[in-house]
Structure formats: structure tokens, C-alpha cells
From TrEMBL:
InterPro entries xrefs: OPT, YSL-like
Species lineage: Bacteria, Pseudomonadati, Bacteroidota, Sphingobacteriia, Sphingobacteriales
PANTHER family: OLIGOPEPTIDE TRANSPORTER YGL114W-RELATED (PTHR31645)
Protein name (record): Peptide transporter
Protein topology in the membrane: Multi-pass membrane protein
Pfam families: OPT
Chain segments annotated as transmembrane: 21-43, 49-67, 79-102, 114-136, 169-188, 234-257, 353-372, 384-405, 417-437, 443-460, 480-500, 545-564, 570-590, 611-633, 653-674
Cellular compartments annotated: Membrane
Entry GO MF terms: oligopeptide transmembrane transporter activity
Native source species: Pedobacter cryoconitis
GO cellular component: membrane
Length: 688
């Protein structure tokens, strides 16, 4: 039986406006917005949400209405903008690790000097370009040849959005309502402080039943939105890890471990200056041998390392489960190159950039890594090795990433597992050539960071190319747009990271120089990467705690549960995962109600609930970024403090009443999300 040739939405012979100045500019603006929002969300929660579908919705709403864009121009907007989210995820998951590497006598990290704007910018651009570049020879193999076997869920959904917009209908209004609601909520919470930021319930250390247990929640719109989008199952597994850590491990360890021993452990980790000096984020009192914040002290001293071990094991398990996919995809990519199908063909929809771009680009990348002064170095020869490792690991994991997201989607891409494997492989190479000690730690992080960025961007690039294949885009224009999106987004991503890292006056008073790594922006993945590098190159890892986490992850996996999601939940504060679970629970209730009506639960990204939740994520995250930028300016910070109503509300309602008010407003937002989720959306009828 002859296989019918695939016909795209826009025929190859059509002459439709595509790669235009307005499409590139609009795409760059979208990339900047969602890149900044992703940096904020990833630093806060260690999670990201795919930006491709929201950008596609905005493209067909704003672009078509105000700029008269075509479907192919809207695709270029979405393609260019999507680079921001993927680059931001790769950067945040690794590069803050520079702050957490081994410290010198003065307490400064060996990598702190490299946590500057120029180094972040260069590594973001090089990693992003690597991810896009390595996908050029893979497009025909994975996107075209395996169109029927690799669905690329987000890419297919984006194509549906673009086609729906071309045929008519308006459904972005719901997303804009969510964005507006989140902005108003965030204004009340972060500027006027009408809403408590993190209501908390803590038991005392002297409690006989559950000492130093803590339940808290950062009741923000972006967390509720993320929970709704990822659904009840993943949100439930995430919060389960937090429940084990904060209501199980911490009370147990607080009972068994003497506070002085915990203080010594905090000193060893560099989180407490001296056991004889009072202070630190945990409020250590050497006179009474007590902490003002017992749960945080136990979490930082022990549970965080247990969580790191669990995340590492969960990442490896996820990677091991994809080994058959890894082998087959790598074989297919080699076969595709041997077939010599990289020459541009006559059909517009078959035109890729030349394979020479990959060869010359790889060589240029190795040279740049070797000579640029902003990149950690121990001589040009050592950096040549780093460049070679980046290209080799990049070629492998870009292939792996593309194949995996083709099957299970970008949201489930095991980027952490690939980065862990890269870092451990790099450290083993370093050890083999005698490169041990803290001087080589930043160099190992460079390799891991660039591969993480490349793999994340390769996943997003694959989804974009799938969208383009379905609607009939020109691949070479998409590939050029992705290169532009990588560069423009990286400029703003680096700035956002540096701004969010600016410590508050309260932090400076405690001697804290970086906001990243504190409760404000915990950066869980980056901390894990730094922990692995330090442990391997110094042979001084606290394996007893790490291995507890490893076996917790193995136990959870043997129970048939996603160990990586559980491990991330155990690593993060419960204040992060609990509000995410609330969003997931709302999604679960909506699905349950629809099943009772013998309907199919809302699975489409175009459903009203998902669109409103997307608005909550974007609005809440953007508001967080804007407020963080404003708080950097002393005069603005001083003026904002004048409109703070928290002292007044606390006087009226008491501390507990003020926090209860915040919880009630958060639940009201959940009620609004629930009601909107039940409404019929015009777009669903169009797409279906």
C-alpha cells in the first residue's frame, strides 16, 4: 500500500508573507516577556511551563487583529518567542550553581566571579545556538520521516491554534482575563500587602507529637496556574514529596539531632559563619544553643541534601528509562546524515539551512569557548577540551531531547537527568586527566550549563519545526528566527537573573550577598548541579544524606510513581508545592465533574481553564519580575513601603487573622478558576 504524501495547511507553492520584520519583532517581544517570566518561575519553584501555545494564542489575536499577519508570520512570531522560555529554563537550572561551588577562606564561592551578566549572556547564547544548530540535520529524520510516529504534542497543539486563528474565532480573551486577574492580585500582594505572601503554621520544637513541623504556602497566582496546567496527578506527587520532608523527615530529625550538631553541619555547608556567633537565616543562638527557625535549620542542614540525592536519582532513573529511545534516535540521526539529504530542495517546505552551518558553527563554538575571557579557564588547552566536550555531549543530547519531546512533550523532558549525566561524565574526564579541586568546578559547570541550555532549546525547537511542518512553513526561516530569538532572549534573561539576584536590605543586614539560593529564590536544580560537581571533584560529598535521597527515589519508582516529580517536591519547600497542589486539585475536580456528565475531561491546551491558568502564570510571574526590578531602586522601594497596609491589617485582625484573609482571597481565586473552567469556549468547537 502506497503511503499518502502529507499535505501541509499552506501548500509549498503558495507565496505567503512569512519571514518579515514585524513577525521577527513581535516574536522577540514575546520571547523577552516569557523569558523573563520563566526565569522568575524557575528560580522560585524549579518548574517551567511551555510558552509556545500562549505565544501562538497572542500571535493570532494581537498579530492578526492589529498587524494583519498571515498564518506563516504568526508561526514565525511563535517560533522566535518560544526560544526565550527554553533558554531561560536551561540558564536557571544550571548557571546559578556558580554561587554554590566550593568556597575559599573568605567564604566566597570559586565560581562567584563568573556569575556576572556577560558570562551568563555568552553561555546562554552559545548553548541556545548549539541546540538549534544541531537540530538542522535532524529535522528530516525526526520531524518529516517520523511524522506519523512522533506526535510532538506541543508542536501539534500550536499548529491547531494557528489553523483555528486562520479560520476565525476568538479565544484569547480568557487568557487575558487570567493575566489581568493575576496582575491585580499580585499588586495587592507584593505592593500593598493586602494579601499575605506566605501564611505559615509551625509547631514548636518542644511539641511532643510533631516537633518543628511546618505547613506553609506562597499563595501566588502563578503557582495556582502551574498546578492547574500540570494536573492533579503530577501536582499530587510533587506535594507528596513536600509532605514527607516537612511533616515527616524534619520532625524526625529535629527530635534525634542535637541543635549544636545541626549548627556544625550548617557551618560545614557555609550557611552559618561560625557556631560561636549568633545569626544566620535560621536564627542561631550560641548562648542557648537554639534556632529561631528549627524547620528551616533542619531543612538546610540535612533534608536539602537528601532531596538533592533524590533528584539526582530521579533524573538518572528517568534517563535510564529512555535508553532504548536514546539508542534508536542516535542511530536514526547518523543514518539521516549518511543519506545526504541536507541539500536544499526545490520545494519551499523542504529548505533547511546548509549542513555547513553545523560544521562551521561547531568549530566556531569550540574556538570561542577556548578564547573568550568570560568563560572559566585554566589555560587555552583546558578550554579547548571543554569546547570539544560541549559539542560531543551536545550532539548526543540534542538528539535525545528531540526524540523524547516528540513522544512525551517538552514538559516531561528529563533535562535534569541529561545535565546530571553530562556533569558526571565531565567530572570523570577531569578526574582522569588529573583535574581535581575547586579550580576546575566552574569549568565543569560550564559544560553542564551549555548542554542543559542546548537540550532545553532543542526540545522547543523540535516542537516549533513540527508546527511549521504541519502548517507549511519554510524550515530555513524558522531556523534563522530561532537563532535570532536565542540572541535577543538571552540579553534579557541575563539581566533578569542579575536583577532577581539583588539582595534586599534585610538580606544585606544578615550578610547575604545574593537573593538566589535563599528562601526567596531557591534555585533547586542549580544547587543540585553544584553539589554534584563539588562532591565529585573534591571527593568530599556527604554521601550518607545523598544516598538516603537516592533510595527514597528508588522506593518511589518501585511503587510505580514518577520518582523525579516526588524528589523535586521533597527538595523544594512545602510552601511552593502546596499552592501548586491546590491548582492541580481544582483541575481534578473539574475533570471529575465532567466525567460525571459523561463528557471527556478538558485535555486540550485551548480549554478555558488552561487558558485562564496560563494567564495566571504569565501575569503572576511578570508582576514578580516587575516588582523585583522596582525594588532594586532605593527611592522606589522607599515609596512603596509607604503604601504597605500589612501593619494596619495585622493590628486590625491579628497576625493569624491577616494570614487567614490571604488564604481566603487565594481560595476565591481558585473559585474563579473553577467556574471559568466549566464554561464552554468557542475555540474548543473550532479546533475539535
Amino acid at each position: 500500500m502506497i503511503k499518502e504524501e502529507f499535505k501541509p495547511f499552506t501548500p509549498a507553492e503558495s507565496n505567503v508573507a512569512e519571514f518579515t520584520i514585524k513577525s521577527i519583532l513581535l516574536g522577540c517581544i514575546a520571547g523577552i516577556i516569557f523569558g523573563a517570566a520563566t526565569v522568575y518561575l524557575a528560580l522560585k519553584a524549579g518548574l517551567t511551563v511551555s510558552a509556545s501555545i500562549p505565544i501562538a494564542v497572542l500571535a493570532i489575536t494581537l498579530g492578526k487583529k492589529f498587524f494583519k499577519t498571515t498564518i506563516l508570520e504568526n508561526n514565525i512570531i511563535q517560533t522566535t518567542g518560544s526560544a526565550g522560555e527554553s533558554i531561560a529554563a536551561g540558564v536557571v537550572f544550571t548557571l546559578p550553581g556558580f554561587l554554590f561551588l566550593s568556597t575559599d577562606i573568605g567564604g566566597q564561592s570559586s565560581g562567584e566571579a563568573f556569575f556576572n551578566y556577560m558570562t551568563i549572556l555568552i553561555l546562554a547564547i552559545l548553548g541556545g545556538v548549539l541546540g538549534t544548530m544541531m537540530m538542522i540535520p535532524l529535522r528530516r529524520s525526526l520531524i518529516v520521516k517520523e511524522h506519523d510516529t512522533l506526535p510532538y504534542p506541543e508542536g501539534t497543539a500550536c499548529a491547531s491554534v494557528l489553523k483555528a486563528g486562520e479560520r476565525g474565532g476568538s479565544f484569547a480573551c480568557t487568557a487575558f482575563w487570567g493575566l489581568g486577574f493575576a496582575m491585580i492580585y499580585a499588586l495587592l500582594q507584593k505592593v500593598f500587602h493586602v494579601i499575605s505572601e506566605a501564611p505559615t503554621w509551625v509547631t514548636t520544637q518542644a511539641n511532643k507529637f510533631l516537633p518543628s513541623a511546618q505547613v506553609s504556602g506562597e499563595i501566588t497566582p502563578e503557582y495556582m496556574g502551574v498546578g492547574y496546567i500540570i494536573g492533579p496527578k503530577i501536582a499530587g506527587v510533587l506535594v507528596a514529596g513536600g509532605v514527607l520532608a516537612w511533616l515527616g523527615l524534619i520532625p524526625l530529625l529535629a527530635t534525634l539531632i542535637d541543635p549544636a550538631l545541626a549548627a556544625h553541619q550548617l557551618v560545614k555547608l557555609g550557611l552559618l559563619a561560625d557556631i560561636t556567633k549568633a545569626g544566620g537565616s535560621v536564627g542561631w543562638n550560641p548562648a542557648t544553643q537554639t534556632f529561631s527557625d528549627y524547620p528551616l535549620a533542619i531543612y538546610q542542614a540535612y533534608v536539602k541534601q537528601i532531596g538533592a540525592g533524590a533528584v539526582a536519582a530521579g533524573g538518572f532513573i528517568t534517563l535510564l528509562k529512555t535508553i532504548p529511545t536514546i539508542i534508536s534516535s542516535f542511530k536514526d540521526s547518523l543514518g539521516s546524515i549518511k543519506e545526504g539529504k541536507t541539500v536544499a530542495e526545490t520545494k519551499r517546505t523542504d529548505r533547511d539551512l546548509s549542513l555547513k552551518v553545523v560544521g562551521v558553527g561547531s568549530l566556531a563554538l569550540i574556538i570561542l569557548v577556548a578564547v573568550l575571557p568570560q568563560i572559566p579557564s585554566n589555560g587555552i588547552l583546558s578550554n579547548l577540551l571543554i569546547g570539544v566536550l560541549v559539542v560531543l555531549f551536545g550532539a548526543f543530547f540534542v538528539t535525545v531531547s528531540s526524540r523524547i519531546v516528540g513522544l512525551i512533550g517538552s514538559s516531561n523532558n528529563p533535562i535534569s537527568g541529561m545535565t546530571i549525566a553530562t556533569i558526571m561524565g565531565t567530572c570523570l574526564v577531569f578526574i582522569a586527566v588529573g583535574w581535581t579541586g575547586k579550580v576546575y568546578e566552574p569549568m565543569a559547570l560550564v559544560v553542564g550549563g551549555m548542554i542543559c541550555i542546548a537540550a532545553a532549546n532543542a526540545g522547543a525547537t523540535s516542537q516549533d519545526l513540527k508546527t511549521g511542518y504541519i502548517i507549511g512553513a519554510t524550515p530555513r526561516y524558522q531556523q534563522i528566527a530561532l537563532f535570532i530569538g536565542v540572541i535577543v532572549s538571552s540579553i534579557v534573561i541575563g539581566l533578569t537573573v542579575r536583577i532577581l539576584d539583588t539582595p534586599t536590605p534585610e538580606m544585606l543586614a544578615q550578610g547575604i550577598k545574593h537573593a538566589i539560593g535563599t528562601e526567596l529564590y531557591s534555585a533547586p536544580q542549580a544547587t543540585l548541579m553544584a553539589t554534584l560537581i563539588k562532591g565529585m571533584l573534591s571527593f568530599n560529598l556527604d554521601w550518607q544524606y545523598v544516598l538516603v535521597g537516592v533510595f527514597i527515589a528508588i522506593t518511589i519508582e518501585l511503587c510505580g510513581i514518577n520518582s523525579l516529580s516526588f524528589a523535586v517536591g521533597a527538595y523544594l519547600p512545602l510552601s511552593t508545592t502546596l499552592p501548586i497542589f491546590v491548582g492541580g486539585a481544582i483541575k481534578g475536580i473539574v475533570d471529575w465533574k465532567e466525567r460525571k456528565k459523561v463528557k471527556t475531561p478538558e485535555e486540550e491546551e485551548l480549554g478555558p481553564g488552561n487558558l485562564f491558568a496560563t494567564g495566571l502564570v504569565a501575569g503572576g510571574a511578570l508582576a514578580g519580575v516587575v516588582v523585583a526590578i522596582l525594588m532594586v531602586i532605593p527611592s522606589v522601594r522607599s515609596n512603596l513601603s509607604k503604601v504597605d497596609v500589612q501593619p494596619l491589617f495585622t493590628r486590625w485582625f491579628g497576625a493569624g487573622g491577616y494570614e487567614l484573609l490571604g488564604v481566603l482571597i487565594f481560595l476565591f481565586m481558585g473559585f474563579v478558576l473553577y467556574n471559568i473552567s466549566k464554561k464552554k469556549n468557542e475555540a474548543e468547537d473550532i479546533v475539535k
